[in-house]
Amino acid sequence: MKENQTDTCDACGVSAEIGYIISEGDEVAEVTIHGDSKDAVQARFEQYLSLAESINPAVKHDFDPQQFDGSRAHIKLQFECSAEKLIFELRSRGLNNA
């Protein structure tokens, strides 16, 4: 077997090295949430947290509603494995566009 194996995705025509997309030790997703008020940012965070918990109920976060400026918050969500982070990032694209 070759050491640097490249697979092609039949659905999208993209090729990538195995291990490039999912990297060991890359379990933290970072999200910046914008809102018109503290309550809007809190509500938006709860949407992201709900999505993250649907992937892994043991997800950890550093969001503290007392420690952010009134219009945005930068949060980190730590999953148990890199694949969970990747799933979260793909699924959260819908929340980013809402």
Automatic annotation (TrEMBL):
InterPro entries named among the record's database cross-references: DUF406, UPF0234-like_C
Keywords: Plasmid
A Pfam family: DUF406
Keyword RNA-binding tagged: no
Transmembrane segments: none
Family, per entry: Belongs to the UPF0381 family.
Protein name from the UniProt record: DUF406 family protein
Organism encoding this protein: Salinivibrio kushneri
Lineage: Bacteria, Pseudomonadati, Pseudomonadota, Gammaproteobacteria, Vibrionales
